[in-house]
Specification:
The chain is of the alpha+beta class and 421 residues long. It has two domains: 330 residues, Thrombin, subunit H, CATH 2.40.10; 85 residues, PDZ domain (Pdz3 Domain, Roll), CATH 2.30.42.10. The strands form six sheets. Strands 3-4-5-8-7-6 form a six-stranded antiparallel β-barrel. The protein has a six-stranded antiparallel β-barrel with strand order 10-11-12-15-14-13. The relative contact order is 0.15.
């Protein structure tokens, strides 16, 4: 299992009829068509009314436009209270969502044609060429709007993606992309403009991360943002749309779109056959209506084994992440340095080095005193353990140790506990 994404093939699909294997050829045709066509011609103006902006089914989030308000291109703009989870799903919202005139907030929602309702809600294979064309058109419309809120993320030498989720500039990403709270990130927008952001918190148990675009960079305008959905009612066989900037932002290429289907729904991840590659981590996964349902996390050992963080985990962890808290680690990805010490010592004295560990490879020796670990000042062995726990396997960290009165700097590549146990 890798934390940075790369293309992979098909896993068994439970409860899907017909199976993703049977529709693989159609999916490939769609992918070729979508990748081969320019999305620019899709940006012509059409008009919908706010009365029309609600889902054919499900529980859309209420907006603030009055029924009948003209909405160019069918795009719905909502509001979000700064600091409050945009994925909030209160009983009041559920009740309100059944009333005429309410519709989802965000800029990526596209009302699907009635003919696609079954594919949206249950998945399956298009039954005719006309339905195939409608499906292609719907995917193109969603992709064209997703481009505005899908961002490339750069933190130091590391690169990933993110998705803007509120008009005030909150961005969802993967925990391993955000790294740790308080890190400065550079985001590249669809037009090539760069803005700075600061990471907030991370729920590493599921690889969920949060950051926020720094104030004063939007010229007083709201940021384009994804229409929040839910991962509660997903099932195998549903169609999905993955976007991202694999390998980093490229102006001539732009955002990359992949179309696929959900293969498996787990508590902590969603598996799809939307092939992810290096640099996709943190990017968004949408359903056919343009609602955000997950965020790209990692790949497995097969081309179709692409894992995404269910969006409801961001809702459930929002308050803690927004407070700058980080916790947990992905199964199989517990970070390790490979040193032993005494928690009661007044400083971080290294008593033992595990042979073959990252510390051993970096040249740390028994008797060294660790004084600094990356950006963190180390005061004792417990603070060293906390600093290591705040990293990710594969991350390279500068470590300063005092040896025989001299301060020495080494570079450690953090390992995984199961590799150095």
């Amino acid at each position: 299992m890798k934390l940075d994404s790369s293309p992979q093939s098909s896993l068994p699909c439970a409860d899907a009829a017909p199976t993703p294997r049977r529709c693989g050829q159609i999916a490939r045709i769609l992918l070729v068509l979508i990748c081969g066509w320019s999305l620019s011609f899709l940006l012509g103006t059409t008009t919908a009314t706010a009365q029309d902006q609600f889902f054919p089914s499900g529980s859309p989030l209420p907006g603030n436009l009055a029924p009948g308000t003209a909405v160019p291109d069918g795009i719905v703009h909502g509001t979000a209270t700064d600091g409050v989870s945009p994925m909030a799903n209160s009983e009041a919202e559920q009740d309100a969502s059944t009333r005429p005139g309410f519709r989802p907030k965000g800029d990526t929602w596209v009302k699907p044609p009635e003919e696609l309702r079954e594919l949206l809600e249950r998945g399956g294979v298009p039954e005719s060429l006309e339905m195939l064309r409608l499906l292609q058109r719907q995917q193109q419309l969603v992709a064209s709007r997703a481009a505005e809120c899908t961002v490339s993320v750069q933190i130091g030498p590391a690169q990933g993606c993110g998705v803007i989720i509120t008009e005030t500039g909150y961005v969802l990403t993967a925990a391993h992309v955000a790294m740790r709270p308080g890190k400065e990130a550079v985001l590249t927008l669809a037009d090539g403009r760069t803005v700075t952001a600061t990471t907030r918190g991370m729920n590493r148990h599921v690889d969920a991360g949060l950051m926020k675009i720094d104030e004063g960079q939007d010229g007083g305008k709201p940021w384009p943002f994804a229409s929040p959905g839910t991962s509660a009612n997903l099932r195998s066989g549903m169609w999905c749309i993955a976007t991202g900037h694999p390998g980093g932002y490229e102006r001539d290429r732009g955002m990359v779109t992949r179309v696929g289907r959900i293969l498996e729904v787990r508590d902590d991840s969603i598996v799809t056959d939307c092939a992810l590659i290096g640099g996709d981590s943190g990017g968004p996964l949408f359903d056919l209506s343009g609602r955000l349902i997950a965020v790209h996390s990692r790949i497995g050992n097969d081309v179709a084994d692409n894992l995404h963080v269910p969006v409801d985990h961001y809702r459930d962890s929002w308050d803690k992440m927004n407070e700058g808290k980080s916790w947990g680690y992905l199964e199989g990805f517990k970070p390790v340095l490979g040193v032993r010490g005494n928690g009661t010592d007044p400083q971080a004295n290294v008593k033992e080095i595990n042979p073959g560990s990252p510390a051993d490879d970096a040249g740390i020796q028994a008797g060294d005193v660790v004084e600094r670990f990356g950006d963190v000042q180390i005061t004792d062995f417990e603070s060293l353990k906390s600093a290591v726990a705040d990293t990710m396997p594969g991350e390279r960290v500068k470590v300063w140790v005092r040896r025989e009165g001299r301060l020495i700097q080494v570079v450690v590549e953090i390992g995984r506990a199961n590799d150095h146990s």
